[in-house]
Write a structure and sequence with these properties.
Elements (H helix, E strand, L loop, with lengths): L2 H15 L3 H16 L3 H9 L6
Length: 54
């Protein structure tokens, strides 16, 4: 997911808060779920390094 989409969800949540609180909470929850899903680029980089973290 690109950085632009992430910010769009966050900004959408802020804008929706003035109209519908439930829609705002749903967008914030979606943003939180995006943070929980591992990024494939990071996973590939760690796998290439033998799984060692710095």
């Amino acid at each position: 997911m690109t950085k632009e989409r992430f910010f769009a969800f966050t900004e959408g949540g802020i804008a929706r808060a003035f109209v519908n609180a439930y829609a705002a909470v749903a967008l914030y929850a979606l943003t939180a779920l995006i943070w929980l899903v591992p990024d494939r680029r990071v996973e590939r980089h760690l796998a290439a390094r033998g799984g060692k973290a710095d």
